[in-house]
Every structure is written in structure tokens, then in C-alpha cells.
Specification:
Strand order of the largest sheet: 14-13-12-11-7-10-9-8-15
Shape: globular
Oligomer: single chain
CATH class of the largest domain: Alpha Beta
Number of domains: 2
Helix content: 25-40%
Radius of gyration: 20 Å
Structural class: alpha/beta
Largest sheet: 9 strands, mixed
CATH superfamily of the largest domain: Dihydrodipicolinate Reductase, domain 2
Number of helices: 11
Order of helices and strands: EHEHEHEHEHEHEHHHEEEEEEEHHE
CATH topology of the largest domain: Dihydrodipicolinate Reductase, domain 2
């Protein structure tokens, strides 16, 4: 195989992000695309000289593919991943992979049984400064961690509805939670509170405006994450503030960091296209048959999904501590 034959399920906003990466790589060829909106499927097909479909089962039945990118809203995962695995395809799924842990675990088990390469769209793991930050933290005694993400309300119809998106923590801030897991290890329990009533006048809006979540890590570290979607001005897509016995570190989701000690100051910022690298790693893993080239395989991503689902469930229960299984 010199090029991976790729199909897309979903041709909306996030698919456009991945389409740009497909145009830049020499490792893949988009041969088929599917979207329930025919005009959107046709436009994507024209872009790649691919075959358009409006029913993903038809595409998976008729096309000779090596891999599929699943780029649909969180509530729309209705068996497409399982069908793709049954067809012997490798699988890239945009986060969050589902609103159901039961479904995600079925997909994880099917991938393991079929020995297919998998990846989830946690591109922030591919920021080139992240390994340096992770290495520095590994040598420090961490005291406490405080994180935030604040921005406006995405005006996508499904994002505003909890039954389709799961809410901000599950759909959006999962990126921040995933990076925190990557840096600090596994979370054993989580508790959270949320509020509503700030965002008004938006039709069909029923998700949380802001939340505060406390995480208990296996290492003993306690971290907090505050996040909101009520500020159109936006104050960045996330900062991680880590305080150690001898210093502190600030890390932004986009890769800028500052490490400070009494007589030390180190600053840096990302210099790579980490979204492109995320997709390229998936393609490389297929071409080289090496799952380890992917920084966020589906099985690991299930742990981040359980974390945000647990946090959201705790909010629903008024702050009740939710134990995580890691399974």
C-alpha cells in the first residue's frame, strides 16, 4: 500500500478541517465521502474527485477503502464505527466518540478483536512543546493544578442541545481534560457543579453555561477545571497552571508555555501544525502497521470520554463524587 484509500462519514465543519490535511499529504487519497445533506456530500466529492453518498452503509458496502474518518455530531454515532470495523477498515473518530460509554466500549472491543489501527481527534497531543512540558513535570513534585477554558457559544444547531452534544465539557473541553490526563496520568474520581441562566435568547439552548470540576488523580494530585461558553469575547481556549514545590508552569492548549523557578525562566511556543501531524500519524500507523505511532488511540481516548461523562453526571447529581473505572 503506497496510499491509504480514505472514506469520510460526515462532511461538515470538522470534516473540512481534516479535508485540508488530506490535501497536504501524499499518504492518502479520499475516494468516497458521505453526508446526509446531499449538496454537502457533492461539494466534498468534487473537491477530491471522489464518490458521494448520503447513506454511509452504501458507501461502506460499495467502496474499496482502507480507512474511514468519522466526523459526525456526538449523538449521531449509531453503528457506523462497528460496520467499518466489520468491513476490515482502520478507524479515525472525531472527539467525542459517543455520548454513551457502553457504545464506545463496544467499538473499543471490536477494534481490539479485529486488530485495526485507530485514532481519535485529540490533535492537542501532537503539539511539539507538549513532550518538553511533560518531561519537566515528571521531575517535579506537583502541589496543585488549576485549569480553565472560556469562550463564546458555537452557533451550531446541535451544539446548543444537550441531547446532541452532551454539553460543553463533553463536546469541547474534552480537549483540555485529555491533555491533563496526558500530562498527569489517570483520574480515579471526579466531582463537578454547573450553572445556567447566563446565556439567554438562544433557541433550543439547554446546556450548562459554566462548570467547575475537581479531579482526583491516581498519583494523589488534585486538579480543578473551570469552563464556560457564555463570553463571546473569548479569553483563550485554555490554560493549565501547575504549581510545584519549587516553581510553577503555565501551559496553553495551543502549546505556549512558561516555566518559572527562583532563578530560572523558560518560555516557548508551538512551531508545528499539530492538526496535520495528528492525521499523518494515523496514516503512518496504517502504512507501517504500528498502532504505537498514534498518540491517542481509541482505547486510550475512552478514558478521557469516561472522565468528561463522569464530570457531567456529577453536575447533574449536584456535585456527587463519581468514581471512574478506567475500563
Amino acid at each position: 500500500m503506497d496510499k491509504v484509500r480514505v472514506g469520510f462519514i460526515g462532511c461538515g465543519g470538522i470534516a473540512q478541517y481534516h479535508f485540508g490535511h488530506m490535501e497536504k499529504t501524499s499518504k492518502a487519497r479520499v475516494v468516497a465521502v458521505c453526508d446526509k445533506i446531499a449538496d454537502r456530500a457533492e461539494a466534498a466529492a468534487k473537491r477530491f474527485q471522489a464518490k458521494p453518498y448520503t447513506v454511509y452503509a452504501d458507501m461502506l458496502d460499495k467502496e474499496k477503502l482502507d480507512a474511514v474518518f468519522v466526523c459526525v455530531e456526538p449523538s449521531a454515532h449509531d453503528g457506523m464505527e462497528l460496520m467499518a470495523i466489520e468491513k476490515g477498515l482502520h478507524l479515525f473518530v472525531q472527539k467525542p466518540m459517543s455520548l454513551s460509554m457502553a457504545y464506545a466500549r463496544k467499538v473499543r472491543a471490536a477494534l481490539a478483536k479485529a486488530k485495526r489501527i485507530s485514532a481519535v481527534g485529540f490533535q492537542c497531543r501532537y503539539v511539539d512543546t507538549l513532550p518538553r512540558v511533560k518531561a519537566w513535570l515528571a521531575g517535579e513534585q506537583i502541589g496543585m493544578v488549576s485549569c480553565f477554558r472560556l469562550g463564546g457559544l458555537p452557533m451550531v444547531w446541535w451544539w446548543r442541545q444537550r441531547r446532541h452534544s452532551g454539553g460543553q465539557v463533553i463536546e469541547q473541553t474534552i480537549h483540555n481534560y485529555d491533555v491533563l490526563r496526558y500530562l498527569l496520568g489517570e483520574v480515579t474520581a471526579v466531582s463537578g457543579m454547573a450553572r445556567e441562566g447566563i446565556v439567554t435568547g438562544v433557541p433550543d439552548y439547554d446546556t450548562e453555561d459554566a462548570s467547575a470540576v475537581t479531579m482526583h488523580f491516581k498519583s494523589g494530585v488534585v486538579a480543578t477545571m473551570t469552563t464556560g461558553c457564555f463570553s463571546p469575547a473569548g479569553f483563550g481556549n485554555g490554560d493549565f497552571l501547575v504549581y510545584t514545590r519549587e516553581g510553577q508552569m503555565t501551559y496553553g492548549l495551543g502549546g505556549a508555555f512558561k516555566i518559572q523557578k527562583k532563578d530560572l525562566l523558560i518560555e516557548g511556543k508551538a512551531g508545528n501544525d499539530y492538526g496535520q501531524e495528528c492525521d499523518e500519524a494515523f496514516l503512518d500507523a496504517i502504512l507501517e502497521n504500528d498502532q504505537d505511532l498514534v498518540l491517542s488511540p481509541y482505547a486510550d481516548a475512552c478514558k478521557s470520554l469516561e472522565l468528561v461523562i463522569g464530570a457531567t453526571e456529577s453536575m447533574r447529581r449536584g456535585g456527587e463524587l463519581i468514581a471512574l473505572t478506567g475500563k
